[in-house]
Amino acid sequence: MEAKLAAGIAATEDSLLLNPFVHHLELETTSEKIKTAFLTIVLLPIRVCLICILLIVGWMLACLGLWGLTEQDLQKRPVTGWRSKVKVVASYPVLWMFYVGGFRVKVIGRRAPRCEASVISLAPHSSFTDSIAMVYLNSPSIVAKGETASIPFFGKLINFTQPVYVWRDDPDSRQNTIKEIISRATSKEDWPQILIFPEGTCTNRSCLITFKPGAFYPGVPIQPVCIRYPNKLDTVTWTWEGPSALKLLWLTLTQVYSYCEIEFLPVYTPSEEEKRDPKLFASNVRAVMAKALGVPVMDYTYDDCKLMTRAKEMNLPNANVIVEVQKLRTRLGLDQTKIEECFIENLSCQDCSQISYVEFSSYLNVAANDGNAQRIFNLYEKNKSGSIDFREYVLGVVGVTENRKTLEILRLAFKIYDSSGKGRLSENDFVPVLVHTLSMSIYESREIFQRIDSTCQGYVTFDGFLRYAEKKAEFAGLFSLSKEELRERNNSIVDNNKVKSH
């Protein structure tokens, strides 16, 4: 059966590697800029006022429906009686909010009732405006991150849907979420359908990333739902690298119309094998949805988002493409050989700041005609110069692997940028180390170099920097333990005490 073949449209090894976490949005033409400026003055204030009024009305209805209920009550049983009627009425102001905001929705296919599919899988997830689908799904219970509950006004509306909250910082949250999903999906009570965004994060809709298996554990029939935004100017996509939510909201509300398509696909009933293997179930549903959307599937995850975020926070070289680089390295098998780390211990190029592609492939010990190696080189190449700074590549790679702490990355950076080979960094070598590990400015880095090198020797060492940093409050974070390290240390102390007591 075609629907069961997850590999049907899977990305091949030779396919172009996409970055689903990046979105570029600019008003390019003069006419677009003039129209946006005009509508900002004429249309935007009216829309904002009407949306605020409707939001307050919806919030008041949600407060009424939740009156007298505790969080425990919402988790124990579905709302019934007059509360369920208020819940239906509360969805209308939200629907009108989108209509006033210029959205025009086209619905394709038939929505299955809960008796046919207790779980709904919606993808691709690319925007806060995806909540428009909730209105057309009669306010199902969503699986959302716990922070959503604290959003002003919207938090009450979301709570009224009796969501399943995921607390990403809680190590037990994943298991508790799965148990709650299974309980509701298989319950005989009249719970709302469960709406999941199986990708777990926002993308630019260029592909479908890995579906999390949590919602597929119940092994019940699922209705896949695809969402599209067929607009000339994409003002809704909210990714990790791209416009802010406020900018997107402004540009969306200054469009005369924004179009959205919601397509209900046939209910997907899992096989016995899929019931036993939630990951297979999730993968096969993703394949069906990707085929309907006409996009490839790519094995990106929420962890890739965290990786890119950390790289950006540290200002690691080419942080915005680090996820693509890691995927290409996996294709080349470099994640297994860890050849970059070996290179650090034995720097073998006289000037690593400018190496050709032939040298690059040689250092990585890969074939020069390998397209994946060429793609990595192109990502680091600047202005089509025919060369890259190999130090930037190596630092970017080791900076996001092995879950290293900043101090360890800093130590490695000192080695990578040590052109003398003697553990001594000149000012020109020292500056990029701080810029690309501690996200400091060039001016600040030069100033620190001069303070450390007070005797004008022309170089600093790693130990010399540490002695300086230990005395400065701004570097205190380098020497403090993270929450995970503190927990491990405390557990170690407890275990040792137990051993001694016996």
Automatic annotation (TrEMBL):
Keywords, comma-separated and alphabetical: Acyltransferase, Lipid biosynthesis, Lipid metabolism, Membrane, Phospholipid biosynthesis, Phospholipid metabolism, Transferase, Transmembrane, Transmembrane helix
Gene Ontology terms for molecular function: acyltransferase activity
Statement: the UniProt record of this protein carries the keyword Transferase: yes
Functional pathway: Lipid metabolism; phospholipid metabolism; Phospholipid metabolism
InterPro entries to which the protein is assigned, alphabetical: EF-hand-dom_pair, EF_hand_dom, LPCAT1-like, Plipid/glycerol_acylTrfase
Bilayer-crossing regions: 37-67
Pfam name, any one: Acyltransferase
PROSITE patterns in alphabetical order: EF_HAND_2
Subcellular compartments: Membrane
Record-linked SMART domains: EFh, PlsC
EF-hand domain residues: 368-403, 405-440
CDD domains associated with the record: LPLAT_LPCAT1-like
Keyword Transferase among UniProt keywords: yes
Family membership: Belongs to the 1-acyl-sn-glycerol-3-phosphate acyltransferase family.
Name used for this protein in its record: Lysophosphatidylcholine acyltransferase isoform X1
